[in-house]
Design goal:
The complex is a heterotrimer.
Chain A lengths: L1 E12 L2 E13 L3 E6 L6 H9 L6 E9 L2 E2 L5 H7 L5 E4 L13 H12 L4 H14 L16 H13 L5 E5 L7 H18 L2 E6 L2 H7 L2 E6 L2 E7 H6 L4 H18 L1
Parallel strand pairs in A: 3-8, 3-9, 6-7, 7-8
Antiparallel strand pairs in A: 1-2, 1-4, 4-5, 9-10
Helix pairs in contact in A: 3-4, 3-5, 4-5, 5-6
Chain B lengths: L6 H20 L24 E6 L4 E6 L6 E9 L6 E7 L2 E8 L3 E7 L3 H6 L9 H4 L4 E9 L5 E9 L15 H37 L1 H15 L3 H12 L3 H10 L3 H15 L2 H8 L4 H37 L10 H10 L8 H29 L3 H4 L2
Helix pairs in contact in B: 1-4, 1-12, 4-5, 4-7, 4-8, 4-10, 4-12, 5-8, 6-7, 8-10, 10-11, 10-12, 11-12
Chain C lengths: L2 H25 L5 H5 L6 H10 L6 H13 L13 H36 L4 H13 L4 H15 L17 H38 L2 H8 L4 H38 L5 H10 L3 H29 L1 H10 L1
Helix pairs in contact in C: 1-12, 5-6, 5-8, 5-10, 6-8, 7-8, 7-10, 8-10, 9-10, 10-11, 10-12, 11-12, 12-13
Classes of the chains: A alpha/beta, B alpha+beta, C mainly alpha.
């Protein structure tokens, strides 16, 4: 279980101070899918950054993050890297945005986490990387490919393979389907759902897309201006929104669907 | 205004004024004023200063207290007239005895003695290759120049000039010219060549950029290919060959430098023109049937002007450095006093063995200062033209 | 067209341009073109013979073709000054110029890269500020001024290094010769490194700052990788292709610098040979030296291109697929 209590995040740019998260309380469970929904600027990406404690200089974070009973806020940067990031919580970013390092092969980028965190040899790690690619539906031989040789959807599969490398307990997926075409979106969503069930992962889906969120998630968390304004099981929230913002998001969705049907 | 708060415009103004007025106040830079490699006055108190000892009809004796090692030069000139049948001499008396400098014979005439004259050396009993100064100034102490004769002269005017090892604000160079005057004279050449060559380059570059950007197609392709070509070649060897073949005068240098440094401006202007070409107001003008030259000259050029100004300013250091480089290599007109030329002469004619750093520093620091000033000014103009840049530079 | 054929064609275009420029410059001078090719002190008969040999009695176009053929085979004619073939003189000097520029480039690249990476990692630190200042200064410092100062300080006032020459006179034998050569080369190389490491460091720093703030590096940090892997495997490898472009762009300037450096330190190289030829109006020698310097630039450009292709998979990939 990831328990977040009173999480505050401030960015300092010059003399201005921007509050990105304003007292967020949240519970994320394993073997379940939680969607964090919000418009751009609502603080949802900041939340992802904060959960991994990957903050840019000038940012200050306060509050409590407990993961499987461990207090994450008290870990040093070294401990975070050695025993928390990727091994407990891993991350999938928007695939079409080039999140891979362009000059390294996919195999290398997947294998290196195994070498670092699981102390595997280069060959063992490469073998495991190939298996991971296969698990996400890519040919094993693609370990030798470079990111630019892949399409957006393929890149996203590779990113998921990389995220699964160290058998994390939680997977944060930040807008994993944005900038993909509709069919590819559906494929990626199916893949993520299947893996969650298969591996008993806690999937945290961060998206602005309420339709996607309601199709995938067991629980919804609605974020607005750095605060959690609504939260609950997906069905209940859709039937009886607890906050005006959820209602307006739903309204927008309905208008969109209506215009699609025209 | 912000511009006035920066150091660079003031530094440039000061230098320009010094370059314009300085030479008029200090005199001809080519004049030989002191022995070669004389140190600056303020530098070395142990080196002797310049001194004159004068004799006249009334004053037949002059003395001085010499506290230094031998001076760098010893020159005695003058005229005399003696009564009928008289004979006289000029003597030099020091702590170790007396020497006869000149016998004055006949009714009158002139005399001119110099430490460098072989006859003078021989008269003092030295070999032609021995310097007489050690003999004339064996040790510190009182020295006296005296007229000694059977009768007083009817007329006498003698001037003994002892040139010391010290001169002026910045000493002298290998020919005994005043380094400070040379430095002042160099300002003019450096600034003139830097500005004129850059303006020429800007003119060429703007034309090429506007034409290429606006016309596109084959013209653009050819111009940009040419720019790439020139950028891919080592500039200095080209300049050297051209300076060697075409001549080394002021205007040739400006022409050569201008011809080979237009590429950067052309690229900038081209990029700007390309982005402006699609702007609605330009399209409207085209639709209205405005001729190409009108659109280019009346609308695109003024839009490009602020960026152009910054590019030109940033280009000046390059031209100044290139001119200085050519001059340093000795590929400029020897009559053209520039900072690069000063460094060339310092390097070629023994400033090193003399340890004469005061010849090196002024022109070198002058070049650095001017370049830094233009860079500073250019960055300021660049920020004015494109405020986004301010965010990126820390 | 593929990346490689495009590059090769580009290099050939530059070469052709240089050849044309060289042909035109030395022939379009005022006066008899023969004067620029044949030693004026030769007897009329031998002048006539050489005029035939160079094809100066044929039309310009034919002369140009002949010139191309001769230049490509490094036949630049006889030097007026030494009377020996120009290529022999140049071949003798080329290794010295390559040793000077090559070691200066390698050293300033290494030092500049290290400083730039460190400055990018510790932003706002003393090292970063020093790097920025050194970079700004290197754009406005005339090379010869710094070199003259170094000579004055380290060869005259405090004679650690020799004042002039590539080797001592008389030259020592055996291993001592190498040591002596390196001793003579040290100060010129140091001066060139001092002149260029600042702009290198500045460029590397700016590049690294940009890359360290990019999405891939964010993800790499999320992967819990150690700092050294982040910095060198991910960030620096990404920066490598543009850095190689910088090598490419800095080569012409470096060779220009070599001319001045060889003059200041009286080194036995192509640059000083060019200067002496120009000063002595030894036109065949000047033309040959100029062509050789341009050729070295073009060749190193091509090499840098190849290295760029190796470093950037996006280009390597293109090459493999076309094969």
């Amino acid at each position: 279980m990831i328990a977040v209590e009173g999480l505050r995040l401030d960015y300092r740019t010059g003399i201005r101070r921007v509050r990105a998260l304003d007292g967020v309380d949240l519970v994320l469970r394993r073997a379940a899918t939680t969607a964090i929904v919000g418009e751009s600027g609502s603080g949802k990406s900041s939340l992802v950054t904060a959960l991994l404690r990957l903050l840019p200089p000038g940012a200050s974070l306060s509050g409590k993050i407990t993961v499987e009973g461990r207090n994450i806020m008290s870990l040093s940067e070294k401990e975070l890297s050695a025993s928390y990031r990727w091994t407990t919580v891993s991350l999938v970013l928007q695939g079409a945005m080039n999140a891979f390092t362009p000059v390294l092969t996919l195999g290398r980028q997947i294998a290196e986490v195994l070498e670092v965190h699981r102390r595997l040899s280069r060959t063992e790690a490469m073998g495991k990387a190939a298996a991971l690619l296969e698990e996400t539906g890519l040919p094993r031989s693609w370990t030798a490919r470079y990111p630019h040789e892949l399409s957006g959807g393929q890149k996203q599969r590779a990113a998921i393979a990389m995220a699964l490398a160290c058998d994390p307990l939680y997977l944060l997926a930040d807008e994993p389907t944005t900038a993909l075409d509709v069919i590819t979106q559906a494929e990626i969503v199916t893949l993520l759902k299947g893996l969650t069930r298969w591996r008993g992962l806690g999937l945290v889906l961060v998206t602005h897309d309420l339709a996607l969120a309601s199709a995938v998630a067991d629980r919804l968390v609605v974020l607005q201006a750095g605060r959690v304004v609504d939260e609950g099981p997906t069905e209940r929230l859709l039937d009886a929104p607890g906050h005006g913002h959820t209602t307006s998001l739903l309204e927008a969705l309905k208008t969109l669907e209506a215009s699609d049907h025209d | 205004m912000n511009l006035l708060r920066r150091w660079s415009p003031w530094a440039l103004l000061l230098l320009a004024l010094a370059g314009l007025i300085g030479p008029r106040l200090t005199g001809d830079a080519e004049e030989i004023v002191a022995p070669p490699f004389a140190r600056p006055l303020w530098l070395d108190r142990s080196a002797p200063p310049n001194r004159h000892l004068l004799l006249s009809t009334k004053d037949l004796e002059a003395s001085l207290d010499w506290q230094w090692g031998p001076p760098a030069g010893f020159a005695l000139t003058g005229t005399y007239r003696l009564p009928e049948g008289a004979s006289a001499r000029l003597s030099w008396t020091g702590p170790e005895g007396s020497l006869v400098l000149a016998e004055l014979t006949g009714a009158g005439g002139r005399f001119a003695l110099d430490g460098r004259d072989i006859a003078f050396r021989l008269r003092l009993g030295l070999s032609p290759f021995q310097s007489p100064l050690e003999r004339l100034f064996p040790e510190p102490g009182p020295y006296r120049l005296r007229y000694e004769g059977t009768t007083p002269p009817e007329e006498l005017a003698a001037d003994l000039h002892l040139s010391g090892g010290r001169w002026g604000l910045l000493g002298t160079d290998q020919r005994g010219r005043d380094v400070f005057r040379l430095f002042l004279a160099g300002i003019f050449v450096s600034l003139l060549i830097g500005l004129a060559a850059t303006l020429l380059a800007a003119l060429l570059g703007t034309t090429a950029g506007l034409l290429g950007g606006y016309l596109g197609g084959a013209v653009d392709g050819a111009l940009m290919r040419l720019a790439d070509l020139l950028l891919a070649l080592p500039l200095l060897p080209i300049l050297m060959v051209l300076a060697g073949l075409w001549g080394r005068g002021l205007w040739q240098l400006i022409l050569i430098l201008g011809l080979f440094s237009w590429m950067g401006t052309a690229r900038t202007v081209r990029a700007l023109t390309l982005s402006l070409r699609e702007a609605p107001f330009v399209e409207n003008l085209r639709a209205l049937g405005a001729p190409t030259w009108y659109i280019l000259g009346r609308h695109l050029l003024p839009e490009a002007l602020p960026v152009l100004l910054a590019t030109v300013t940033l280009g000046v250091p390059g031209a100044i450095l290139a001119e200085a480089g050519l001059a340093f290599l000795g590929l400029s007109d020897p009559r053209l006093l520039s900072w690069g030329r000063m460094l060339h002469e310092a390097h070629s004619f023994g400033a090193f063995t003399a340890g004469a750093w005061w010849i090196l520093l002024p022109p070198g620091l002058g070049i650095v200062t001017v370049c830094l000033a233009f860079l500073d000014l250019g960055r300021f103009l660049e920020e004015k033209a494109d405020p986004r840049l301010r965010e990126e530079t820390p | 067209m593929t990346y490689w054929s495009r590059r090769l064609l580009g290099a050939l275009t530059v070469l052709f341009f240089v050849l044309t420029l060289n042909f035109a410059l030395f022939r379009l001078m005022p006066g008899d073109p023969v004067a620029s090719l044949i030693d004026p002190r030769f007897s009329p008969e031998s002048k006539e013979a050489l005029r035939k040999a160079y094809g100066l009695d044929r039309p310009q176009a034919e002369q140009f073709l002949l010139y191309l053929k001769r230049t490509v085979t490094f036949d630049f004619g006889l030097s007026f000054i030494s009377g020996r073939p120009v290529w022999q003189e140049l071949r003798n000097r080329l290794p010295h110029t390559v040793a000077l520029t090559g070691s200066a480039l390698a050293l300033s690249g290494l030092i500049g890269t290290f400083l730039g990476v460190t400055a990018a990692r510790r932003r706002g630190g003393l090292l970063e500020r020093a790097t920025l200042t050194a970079g700004a200064l290197s754009f406005s410092f005339p090379s010869f001024f710094l070199q003259l100062l170094l000579l004055l300080l380290l060869a005259v006032f405090w004679p650690l290094f020799p004042l002039r020459g590539s080797v001592s006179v008389p030259a020592p034998q055996g291993a001592a010769l190498i040591a002596d050569y390196l001793h003579h080369l040290a100060l010129p190389v140091i001066s060139l490194v001092l002149l260029s490491f600042g702009s290198w460091a500045l460029y590397v720093r700016n590049l690294m700052v940009k890359i360290l703030g990019s999405e891939p590096l964010f993800l790499a940090r999320a992967k819990g990788l150690p700092e050294s892997i982040l910095l060198w495997r991910h960030a620096f490898r990404t920066a490598l292709p543009p850095l190689l472009t910088l090598v490419l762009l800095s080569l012409p300037g470096l060779l220009s610098g070599a001319v001045i450096t060889e003059t200041v330190f009286s080194l036995h190289g192509v640059g000083r040979f060019l200067l002496e030829s120009i000063q002595g109006q030894d036109y065949p020698a000047a033309g040959g030296a100029f062509y050789l310097l341009a050729l070295v630039t073009v060749a190193s450009n091509l090499l840098a291109d190849a290295a760029y292709g190796m470093a950037d998979p996006r280009i390597r990939f293109e090459r493999e697929r076309r094969r």
